[in-house]
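Submission sheet (multi-component)
Chains listed below:
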Amino acid sequence: MAGAQEKDQTMEVKTIAFEGFKPLADEACQARIVAARKKLGDRVVLLGHHYQRADVYKHADLTGDSLQLSKLACGTDSEYIVFCGVHFMAEVADILSRASQKVILPDLSAGCSMADMASLPKVERAWREIAEVLDPDEHVTPITYINSAADLKAFCGEHGGIVCTSSNARNILGWAFGRREKVLFFPDQHLGRWTGYLMDIPLSEMMVWDPDEPMGGLTPQQIKMAKVLLWKGHCSVHQMFQAQHILRWRQQHPGGAVISHPECNFEVCKLSDYVGSTDYIIKTIAASPPGSRWLVGTELNLVNRIAEEFSPQGKSVQFMAPTVCMCSTMQRIDPQHLAWALENLVDGKVVNQIKVPAYEAELARVALDRMLAIS
Ligand code: 13P
Ligand code: SF4
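Outcome: structure written.
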């Protein structure tokens, strides 16, 4: 018996510690990533979000915006899905992929600060407080932006709600209003407000719900009047872009065009010529005539990539803010963490697996499937 135990222990695969990867130069990591991928072959697929830093993005097999990445996660059949993005994206991949597939986030601290602005206890409290004024399960559809934790997607699944992304928010809101007359939209007030505005909902009927105030800081009358309750959350990267940046640029470049992500504030979206998801931004600039000039309000890694890609066509692509604003959490997926995660897989060890508990995944999937059916 003791002999059998000893044998099991010697056979156990040890995790390769990250410590040894920390001092590696980016260049050294690149070669190790390529070598590990070669050994793993089709057993691994790398998904990369558009905001991912260039030295990681270049290793991605499949790239896209949040909606595309959700669809891609359902479509791959590799044993391992290594997600170069942030935590909520890896959770979605886990929920939508097959049970036998394993999703890996190379650095677990790659979260989304906006997603952290809404939590299940706070949303449940909001639901209870709204219930003091009207029955939310009859009158309010909860919509969670995909930038949210899996338990909030599960909440939506359970309460007749749905998930949306920046590229389908308008259709999703349309679906919601076909069922109930009000919407509780979390966690991004800006995407919610912009989408409501596009649907001709007056700003006076879109009320901000402050989760840190009793009753969201609203009176019963305001709750009754509101068509959209906007969770007081935002993306700190996109809040760096300001109306004055656009106004100043337009004076210098009257023939140029401005394009922004809908996580930007309302004024920025209103002053922009185009507003849409990361994929929409890429496609719109790609389709513009040679020589065109753009001001872009979204994360810096993506803007730099677009600028480089389209510069041979004489297109000028400029970042909207005067300061550097990157998605610092996504930035944590660096070549060192990617090399570390892949080399562990080569050794048969899964590190940093993202696994949503089954009961939560089941309900979250209901809300995600509703979204995918509409998109
Ligand atoms: P997209 O779905 O447009 O890629 O946006 C995701 C995101 O997190 C933007 O900050
Ligand atoms: Fe989250 Fe903002 Fe980063 Fe997007 S850019 S992942 S919303 S923190």
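Remark: The chain has three domains: 11-109+330-360, 115-235, 238-319.
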